[in-house]
Design goal:
It contains 8 helices and 26 strands. It has 408 residues and is α+β, with helices and mostly antiparallel strands. The strands form 6 sheets. It has a 5-stranded mixed sheet, covered by helices on one side. Strand 9 and strand 10 form a beta hairpin. The longest helix has 13 residues.
């Protein structure tokens, strides 16, 4: 059996042919650095999100930021929530003009896009028919539907995952629909949600994931800088900048942490979700894939997943400018965050224009406050008002905005 390091180098060579600009990231998680909050951030802002019946949510996913709004998806309510930058509730989208069960609706809503230009919410979704017909729904920040229409036949083979490149152009990934996935490229450039005008990132003949059930690029995150795309079980991450420049980040990890070479070399293993699951059950100490992939400026954020789970200690940030790996849970609270919890109770939910965002549960906020008799946050008007109101104990999580230091 070949050593895994040789396999990974071969696999990376295949992936590198898919894009013009690539960066190799060689890391070992056990050497990740840490420090105090003040060593990583210039400022930390707390934004309590308004808690009332229609604005209460469970957990936030896929956070996106525009000039006026924060928007995110919540599985527990099957809703896209929009809050103003002040934390005031703006609106909520809880339904689409489609007949579908909750799982299908969750999948559709999760793929929402907050357009930075118009600040409207765009959702492209699959009608779940045999042709994989797509529809587009557009909402304003209050949740009012502005547009609903069926997209043309050219979208039948595409995934609902997309990102804006500019007000006219979007980038879509190819849908992995088996019987309809005949595309030779992973990404498609679309003009005005009407026609495909270009295809990029060609599939490679020798790519071991070609025949995998998960051979599809999925949009991981969006920011004013661009979008991050990723295939399950791949070691390569793709970054599409606003404007359309494509680059990649190729991970090389210690052989002891990654999947055995038989995983990538055996078509029978990769073919179905069930066969992959059986294999991963037997290799639960190995990193199977990446999640929570995000980027802002020179910082790339990600989480390593073993089998189908991850711990807070599996979340990292990597500096593309210095080549330094940081362990998120190794960043400890200090006076900058008033010794309130950060990464121990939350994962990075968004990155945008030099800021990272966390949602801290109200329970964690108040437990820390109750245990700290010094109450150092009293000098912060927002936090002082938040902790004074006992109703916040059972209210929405607090959105925390952290400005990264430029020296990282």
């Amino acid at each position: 059996m070949k050593k895994l390091s040789i396999l990974l180098l071969s696999f990376i060579a295949v992936s590198s042919a898919m894009t013009q600009s690539g960066t190799t990231i060689r890391i070992d998680p056990k050497y990740a650095r840490g420090g105090t909050a003040s060593q990583f951030f210039d400022e930390i802002n707390y934004i309590p999100l308004e808690s009332k019946k229609e604005s209460t949510f469970g957990s936030a996913q896929h956070l996106q930021v525009s000039r006026r709004f924060f928007a995110f998806f919540d599985y527990s309510t099957t809703s896209v929530f929009v809050f103003e930058k002040s934390g005031k509730f703006k609106g909520r989208i809880s339904s689409l003009p489609m007949q579908a069960d909750k799982d299908a609706l969750n999948k559709a809503m999760f793929n929402f896009v907050l357009d930075k230009s118009s600040e409207n919410i765009y959702i492209v979704y699959d009608k779940e028919d045999k042709y994989h017909t797509k529809r587009l729904a557009v909402f304003d920040g209050s949740g009012k539907m502005l547009q609903s229409r069926q997209l043309g036949e050219a979208f039948n083979g595409l995934s609902p995952c997309f990102a804006f490149l500019d007000p006219e152009r979007t980038v879509f990934s190819t849908g992995n629909y088996y019987e309809k996935n005949n595309s030779s490229h992973y990404l498609h450039i679309v003009k005005n949600f009407d026609s495909v005008i270009d295809k990029i990132l060609p599939q490679q003949q020798n790519d071991p994931l070609n025949k995998s059930w998960a051979n599809q690029l999925v949009q991981q995150s969006l920011s004013a800088e661009g979008s991050i795309w990723y295939r399950l079980y791949d070691k390569t991450v793709y970054n599409m900048s606003v404007g359309g420049a494509l680059s990649s980040y190729k991970f090389i990890l210690p052989a002891a942490l990654t999947l055995d070479s038989t995983f990538y070399g055996d078509e029978a293993v990769l073919k179905t979700e069930q066969s992959v699951d059986i294999y991963l059950q037997k290799h639960q100490n190995n990193i199977s894939y990446l999640s929570m992939l995000q980027k802002t400026k020179n910082i790339l954020g990600f989480t390593f997943v073993k089998y189908n789970y991850s711990l807070p200690s599996d979340a990292f940030m990597y500096s593309l400018s210095t080549g330094t790996l940081y362990g998120n849970t190794r960043i400890v609270p200090d006076s900058l965050c008033y010794f309130l919890p950060l990464f121990a109770t939350s994962e990075i939910t968004g990155m945008d224009e030099g800021y990272i965002y966390l949602f801290i549960p109200s329970f964690s906020m108040f437990v820390t406050a109750d245990a700290n008799k010094d109450t150092p946050w009293k000098s912060n008007p927002v936090l002082s008002a938040y902790f004074t109101n006992a109703k916040n104990r059972k209210g929405n999580p607090v959105l925390v905005q952290l400005k990264l230091k430029n020296t990282l």
